[in-house]
Amino acid sequence: MKAKDYTTSFTVDQSPQEVSNAINNVRGWWSEEIEGQTDKLGAEFKFHYKDFHCSTQKITELVPDKKAVWHVSEAQLNFVKNKTEWNGTDVVFEITKKGDKTELRFTHVGLVPAIECYGDCTGDGACISTAVCGI
User: Fold this and answer.
1) Which DSSP string corresponds to 9-77?
2) How far apart are the first and last CA of the chain?
């Protein structure tokens, strides 16, 4: 049986374009400690939060108002034993219009219950919904 990647989804009142713009404005929701471009296919950006988390993401897929995929090429998670457990994972945002609302499905491919940071990195999904869409 294949382990399940972490996935959460929610609907918001914003348009697909507004949700897409919010996702691509990583500085606006994940952290101010971002280096590099976060809204262009092929771009790489670095995230840094104190001494806890440093990672480099490459935007490998970007379909405006529909989908964004980031490949984590390098990570240093200093709050777990295996500090590189995010290496080679993918962060996927899928946007779908649902009537007069927009659904955002967030999947972290490779973030599975068997890895140590799963509990700390998943919570209840509220962080991604609040951060990205302000709900």
Assistant:
1) EEEESS-HHHHHHHHH-HHHHT-S-EEE-SSSTT-EEEEEETTTEEEEEEEEEEETTTEEEEEEEEEEE
2) 35
Are residues 86 and 72 in contact, defined by beta-carbon separation less than 8 angstroms?
yes
Indicate the residue type of 57: Q
Q: Residue 89 — φ and ψ, nearest 5°?
A: -90, 170
pLDDT tens by residue, 35-57: 999 999 999 999 988 888 888 99
Residue from 117, 92, 86 nearest 104 by CA: 92
Closest CA to 57 of 80, 74, 41: 74
**Could you give the CA distance from residue 121 to residue 127 in angstroms, rounded to a whole number?**
10
- φ, ψ of residue 24 in degrees (nearest 5): -70, -15
CA 4 to chain CA centroid, nearest Å: 16
Task: Give pTM, 2 decimals.
Answer: 0.85
Whole-angstrom Cα Rg for the chain: 14
pLDDT tens for 4-46 read 888 889 999 999 999 999 999 998 888 778 999 999 999 999 9
